[in-house]
């Protein structure tokens, strides 16, 4: 699938000169402008930044959304081990707030009326930004705090279009987003039927400002791997994908792998049964996002996956690692996610460069960038500064993200051709005269991760 790319000796030398001579700001600026292909491992709503949530959920101009209340008192300290943990700054729709007993309603206030300090706390709650925060904070608490916001079709689609704009500005042309057509609700809290939900997402993608981004979007649906009825959920997802081909292109499974009930081989007979009925459903599954050695990547390939999310533990499974060399199975790398959720607390020893240089197809992705407060540029910046990526490797990574996308052949060919042309033009600009001149008008957008980890902010 992934054609070998000729090593462009001419530009390779120029790139090495740039990489060695550029300041941190200059290198970041170049990588912001770099055409990057696709981000194909990326969750909704986890990709939305907390500031975006706050704005959209309180914007009077945004018609049809629910109003929201946030718990500002009585939340106590978050304790995951409590039988019914109470989530500080949990945010719920007004209809749910009205249904609370009168005594507890006083603990909440309208989201739009938070003080500056409360807003800052709210924003920090929806980020992994403080010492001691890591995977358990992420997997457990944020979900419940945000549930109702993530069910609001108006907020979700408004932020989808905003997200396309942010990606388009940083040179990303394709998004394969993990979204759910099963969870949207009306402002009164009534579930919206799944086909109607699909139509709501479709309408957002047809908005002129969405189309103007030039970003192509497809959706995957992600099941929760460890719940009791996970198999039934997989069946439901396959049926939905079969009815909505073209836009909804793949199934995924996620959730803490260490939890005993979410192991991949649990699903083997379910996927085999479904393959008797359904052809050509994209399968990409989180696997090997763990600490210890295990066979989860191998077991997930057996499920029929052609792409693996994370595969951090693949490095500890030599037989499968060797199998994946020169195959057409891709690993979706998520450097910043692995860093902040402590699967590789030290990015210096992340297996990504080993996979890349062993010939395993890899691409860079952002996973839940809203929680990391990061961007695709940050992922590239980490990769280039930590692992000294060659220019041919940068080209290879971007191309792999499109070559392995769950796209119809015609769209895939069109996106790859456009990506190659964009990269060629980018090379020509940097090759001519002083490369710094080519970047003079580039204005990077950075968030908390770049400020905290690289010391980089742009006005
Ligand atoms: Zn993920």
Describe the structure.
β9, α14 and β10 form a beta-alpha-beta unit. The chain folds into 2 domains: 316 residues, TIM Barrel (Alpha-Beta Barrel), CATH 3.20.20.140; 82 residues, no CATH class. The mean pLDDT is 93. It is globular, with a radius of gyration of 22 Å. It is α/β, with parallel strands linked by helices and 459 residues long. Zinc ion (ZN) binds next to β1.
What is this structure's SSE topology?
Layout (H helix, E strand, L loop, with lengths): L8 H13 L2 H10 L3 E7 L6 H9 L9 E4 L19 E3 H5 L3 H4 L2 E3 L5 H10 L9 H16 L2 H17 L2 E7 L15 H12 L2 H4 L4 E9 L5 H14 L4 E7 L13 H8 L6 E6 L8 H7 L4 E4 L7 H7 L5 E4 L1 H6 L11 H7 L3 E3 L4 H4 L3 H12 L3 H13 L5 H23 L3 H4 L9 H7 L5
Parallel strand pairs: 1-5, 5-6, 6-7, 7-8, 8-9, 9-10, 10-11
Antiparallel strand pairs: 2-3, 2-4
Helix pairs in contact: 2-18, 8-9, 19-20
This protein binds zinc ion.
The pLDDT mean sits at 93
Strand order of the largest sheet: 1-5-6-7-8-9-10-11
What gap, in angstroms, lies between the N and C termini? 41 Å
Q: What is the CATH topology assignment of the largest domain? A: TIM Barrel
User: Which ligands are bound?
Assistant: zinc ion
Molecular shape: globular
CATH superfamily of the largest domain: Metal-dependent hydrolases
Report the radius of gyration as a whole number of Å. 22 Å
Largest sheet: 8 strands, parallel
| Domain unit count | 2
The count of β-strands is 11
What is the level-2 CATH architecture name of the largest domain? Alpha-Beta Barrel
Discrete helix count: 22
Q: Low-confidence segments, ≥5 residues, pLDDT <50?
A: none
Structural class: alpha/beta
**Name of the level-1 CATH class of the largest domain:** Alpha Beta
Helix content range = 40-55%
Strand fraction band? 5-15%
What multimeric state do the chains show?
Answer: single chain
